[in-house]
Design brief:
single chain; Rossmann fold
């Protein structure tokens, strides 16, 4: 699924990094990667967070950008190389089962990825395992669906056209970890200390309905294939629903949606 949308993530990498800039800044602030440190980015996509961290750890440090889809890590590695960042290495890793040694990293980061883990508790436990004592982790996930209409209205419209909930029940999706209390318990349950969960506003603006829908459709792994398979009558029905749904977010300059992410952080204790 994610391999199939990797080319779109590569094409829109700059957009994704600009959209996620506030999340990235906070992830780096709460983990504070230091020169010479070793950083792991999980579910890296085109690698924007890892690239930002690479500049902080310097040539004496190392950043490993990783994703379950090798096609994503190839894009991240190419972007880092284009920027002359020789301290970035790419690996194919599964969030639920990190094939890495114990206590190998000073910092672990994940932007918009943990909510897609099939077993997020196991994923966080794996993060703790690979952290060195005193090492820090930070993840960002999307907040409640109602606070993120830029995607919620698409799910609602597609679900109405298909006659089935989107995403299907039991399948991890963008809002699977939208409850701040549950997110915090995942970290404390894994044995991390100094756990904190905070809200980060992430508004979305786009010049038109078409521009927003094209990018959202292309980047939404679980949704992209479904949208591509719609026949012409279904496409017209979907557009009509979306035209109505985005009416409250229209401005003279295009569309302006609110958005909300949750950033959770914690530290591996020394004992």
């Amino acid at each position: 699924m994610w391999a199939s949308v990797a080319p779109a993530w590569g094409e829109h990498a700059g957009y994704a990094d600009a959209r996620g800039a506030a999340m990235t800044a906070r992830l780096l602030e709460v983990t504070a990667p230091r020169p010479g440190g070793r950083v792991l980015e999980l579910a890296c996509g085109p690698g924007g967070v890892g690239i930002a961290a690479a500049r902080l750890v310097g040539t004496a440090g190392e950043v490993v950008v990783s994703d379950v889809a090798a096609e994503m890590t190839a894009i991240a590695a190419a972007r880092a190389a284009d920027l002359g960042l020789a301290n970035v290495r790419a690996l194919t890793l599964d969030l639920d089962d990190l094939d890495q040694p114990d206590q190998a990293y000073d910092v672990v980061l994940c932007r918009e990825g943990l909510m897609f883990a099939f077993d997020p508790a196991r994923a966080v436990a794996e993060v703790r395992r690979v952290l060195r004592p005193g090492g820090r982790m930070a993840v960002s996930v999307w907040g409640p669906r109602a606070a993120n209409p830029w995607l919620g209205v698409v799910f609602d419209a597609v679900g109405a056209v298909l006659g089935t909930p989107v995403p299907p029940p039991g399948i991890p999706g963008p809002f699977a970890l939208a409850d701040a209390d549950r997110l915090g318990r995942l970290l404390t349950g894994a044995g991390l200390a100094d756990v904190a969960v905070e809200e980060v506003p992430v508004p979305l603006r786009d010049r038109s309905l078409d521009a927003w829908l094209t990018r959202t459709s292309a980047l939404a792994g679980p949704l992209a294939k479904r949208l591509a398979m719609l026949d012409e009558p279904a496409r017209r029905a979907l557009r009509a629903r979306l035209e109505e749904a985005v009416r409250p977010y229209r401005t003279p300059d295009g569309l302006a949606f609110p958005g909300l992410a949750l950033v959770a952080s914690g530290r591996r204790a020394y004992t």
